Amino acid sequence: MTRRRPGILLAGSLVAATAAMAIPVTPDPARDDLTKNIQINWSHTKRSNGFVDDTWWAVRGRCAPNYLGERLLCDTIGLLAQATSRTFEAKMSDDMGLPLVDLWGLVTAKNSPFIRSAHVETPRDLAAVLDFYRAALEKRGWTENDGAVIEPDRAVVAFTTSDGPALLRLVRQDKTTIVDLARRKPLAATARIQPVPGQARLLLGNKADEAADITVNERTIQLAPHAGEGLIDFDAAADELPDRQKIDLPPGKYKVTLKLKGSAAQNREFEVAANETWGLLAGPEGAPLPMRMY
Question: What CATH topology corresponds to 191-294?
Fold first, then answer.
């Protein structure tokens, strides 16, 4: 009897688990739609002149279960993802020297001889994100300049730092706050990827295993798998892109559509300012990965 009990308990557990998988649940955005898995990529490039390029990006997937069993699985994965997230946030904050707001869904960051930058997307509302960055940057010794532009769906705040001027730009879009924080370095004047004066430059690449179509300002560029995927690693790779993967734009907001072969299209509104250079990669599962490079 004793020897049979584990088998009976196991069978009972399997029956219960199978039943749980079939129990429908009502999606709860506050509970289920938080990110549950993380894809992280980091590259470190050291040049012959001793200069170093560090590039980070991370995307968190979402879990919206339809059945109880799926929710239990999402919760288990979520516990592992939370530990990974805390490690990533601490390391990026220390290595990149830029604070990272919590509940982020996408992060890209760059530390090159020309710029230190971060692009963050978070569901937190704009006012809360602005408060976080003002407090976090003040702790790092940054001084906010006069003339900040604060609107319900947009904020632009300039800072003075011991290493030069910096800019924080926030935009609220589709229940997401988009954060762009950058400090251009003195060596920026020597960068090969400078845009035409008064314009912005957008460099396009594809990190996915599938072909990608990227539409910017009603112009579609078709990219083969992995075409230009190294553009965000260092400026020489970006400079060597074919001309069709380099777009010069007037400052402003642009609608960007990214579609991988066999996947649904993803849409973003992308803001660029004069004299900025951005890389835009087709990332995992078709996620657009924007990165400020100059």
Answer: Immunoglobulin-like (2.60.40)
